[in-house]
TrEMBL record:
This is Aminopeptidase N. GO terms for molecular function: alanyl aminopeptidase activity; metallopeptidase activity; zinc ion binding. InterPro entries: Aminopeptidase_N-like_N (IPR045357), Aminopeptidase_N-like_N_sf (IPR042097), PepN_Ig-like_sf (IPR038438), Peptidase_M1 (IPR001930), Peptidase_M1_dom (IPR014782), Peptidase_M1_pepN (IPR012779), Peptidase_M1_pepN_C (IPR024601), Peptidase_M1_pepN_C_sf (IPR037144). It comes from Rhodoferax sediminis. Aminopeptidase N is involved in the degradation of intracellular peptides generated by protein breakdown during normal growth as well as in response to nutrient starvation. Its cofactor is Zn(2+).
Amino acid sequence: MYREGQATAIQRADYSAPAYWIDTVDLCFDLDPAKTRVLNRMFLRRNPEVPAQPLKLDGDELNLARVLVNGQGTSFKIEGTQLVLDNLPDAFELEIFTTCCPAKNTKLMGLYVSNDSFFTQCEAEGFRRITYFLDRPDVMASYSVTLRADKAKYPVLLSNGNLVAHGPLEDGRHFAKWVDPHRKPCYLFALVAGQLVAREQRILSRAGKEHLLQVYVRAGDLDKTEHAMNSLMHAVAWDEARFGLALDLERFMIVATSDFNMGAMENKGLNIFNTKYVLANQATATDTDYSNIESVVGHEYFHNWTGDRVTCRDWFQLSLKEGLTVFRDQEFSQDLAGEASARAVKRIEDVRLLRTAQFPEDAGPMAHPVRPDSYIEINNFYTVTVYEKGAEVVRMMQTLVGRAGFARGLTLYFERHDGHAVTCDDFAQAIADANPGSALATLLPQFKRWYSQAGTPRLHASGTYDAQARTYTLAVSQSCPPTPGQPPKEPFVIPMGVGLLGQDGQELPLQLAGEAAPVPGQRTLVITQATETLTFVGVDAEPVPSILRGFTAPVVLEFDYSDAQLLTLLAHDSDPFNRWEAGQRLALRRAIKSIAATAYPAGATALDDAYIEAMRSVLRHPLLDAAFKELVLTLPSETYIAEQLDVVDPQRIHAVREAMRAQLAHALADDWQWAYETHRDSGAYRPDPVSSGRRALAGMALANLCLVAQGSGPSASSGQASVWPGKAYQRFKDAGNMTDRLNALSALVSSGHALAAQALPRFHALFKDDALVLDKWFALQAGAPDRDGNVLPAVRQLMKHPDFTLRNPNRARSLIFSYCSANPGGFHRADAAGYVFWSERVMELDGFNPQVAARLARALDRWTKLAEPYRSAAREAIVRVAAKPDLSNDVREVVSRALAD
Ligand code: TRP
Ligand code: ZN
């Protein structure tokens, strides 16, 4: 069986300050793919606040050549992966000379080679793969860096901060010296060397200071950097306008690489990005790509203050920078979107991600608090809980203190902690202290349970109307299911946006019992107890409650709405989030009923006229905008539906949802045609919310029309419908932008039409030289709706395609993850072949990139919920992975937790 506990868990409670401080670091690199030489000269000082002890420096896959203390040879020990030095003076110079092999660095952590260029990735613990160091975020030092390399092969030499010297060396080599004016932890160190070109932009800050912005890419990609640069300029301006945070560097650089484990990295002054989040033009990138680029460029830029100026004391505090920075990038995108409806669309998308990815994590074997208590491999804790739920926790703080109060809190946070490595407690304290008397300040210790308790709270509400007393009473209770290591939970502080609608859909004024007068419009009530009763007075008729407006807290709201109430909310709620939510609840209820029905094939007529008519009204609504309509008309995902069930039969869920999709396509055929004709032309390509919303709705309409043509039923057989696949193919060929082109291709693929077999090779031929577009090509096929088990053989075949490689994380994600993690109907096969495939790929990836392997390993997190035969087969596959000799700590942690569930 599997071996456990090879690496011990690190506990948050065990934190102790470092025994030494590192004041300065002078690094000198002789860059060579096969053997890079690193000379590291540091000044260290004993930390007088901790007992005297040896210096233990972290290292990983380094060849150690020399160690000097104050210029003298010295004795040292190697203990495991650490370099240990004893009998040191209180302050001294330490010189360490090592070599490493960037060309063989397949983990993409530390210094590695991609496309003949050098890149680094140091967060979380990659710097120890470059030199021996105190590799922990609370050790902050001043860096100077000299890079030496062949001038022809590596004309561009970059590191953090300012370029202070550069010039030629002998033998065709050259050098550049960089000095970072800001102290930083080593995880923010970066270097880049290679044949790169930059788009440049000079900007002026409000104070009139000039800054140079640069976006570095490979020579052929310069025409795809305009949007990233615009996003960066917007981000700089936004942080100054909204939070008074100005760029603190003369030069700010972004560099794109196609080999990257994650999205992007906020290295001080030298952000390194996955090409996916930099490169875009209308021919190759979709609207979603454009908006992701805006978010990620913003996210990394905002880290310059929330992460780099104030960093984490230890990795348990990761959400201090990540939750806060995700919150900031969400707000940035909302503010750029402008008007209320576009802001709401962004909010709905963010909540949808939280509920389809974070809620399952919170309910599964990897559940952990926003501030975890222990970990084996920190890379496994860059999670949707730390990021997205962490952002919701920050958002609740803003809700409790108001927008201006939150900005004041952030100002106080920087006054107190600028230049330091701090904790989540420090952050919450600053926001509360800047807002004395606020609900947050009053409830702070209880509020902070959001940091310490894992699991998604359930908020149960029920309403009673008393006609005589003219009161409406909401009985509210909260509970939170147990999570690994955390038995029963204490109640949370839950901000709850509430409004009441009259039967005609009009917003009612709200007056709580005991209040002197009604308050117009919605308000936010704060739930703190396990059970509470809220009584509204002066209510003339039974109202429809709109609860948790704007999704004011990351909880599951349970309210036993009638269909009629949901239809009222869908038609009238002034809160767009709850308007969308009402439609989702209507669809979910029908899906679950159909899944539970004994008749099989399930869901043939899952949807009733009332639901279909409601969807028709939304689709045809004269005032709602297209992006919002597209969200309302999108059925809840298979993953989201699965989370609502105790026992999950993925094939049944797939069948029901597909049947619902087909039914909606047929029943609204005329309306889809109208929607397509009226939204298909969005004018000259611009990725703004209005035109991308129109493209999204047109794309959805086309997919539905193709589905109608493929299906049986009256509208299909009428010759009318059969023209749509041909039209889609034409659209696919003629589209002026990638969004329309990919939507047309996807309409053919997802309807299973024969024309897909012509379109797919054509698409490949058109874009064979563009890696990011080929990723879409692989992903589309791996994510296609499964028909009689056809997806897995296609995926296996695609693995043999000359353009496929598991070594490139983007490509691995596009084929393997799209199948295992994003196509439940294709993946969960009764013959277990999907799970076998998964286990093979996890083990294969683990051989060279454990971080990516561990992400894939998470695809079976929810195996205990599966019905038989899936459950036993999934367990068997996990056991097979766990039994592999030499499994990485990364994957071991994931599979051991899965098996302990
Ligand atoms: N700090 C990065 C971000 O969220 C995340 C990141 C990028 C990362 N690359 C990584 C985390 C590698 C761990 C390992 O902006
Ligand atoms: Zn981040």
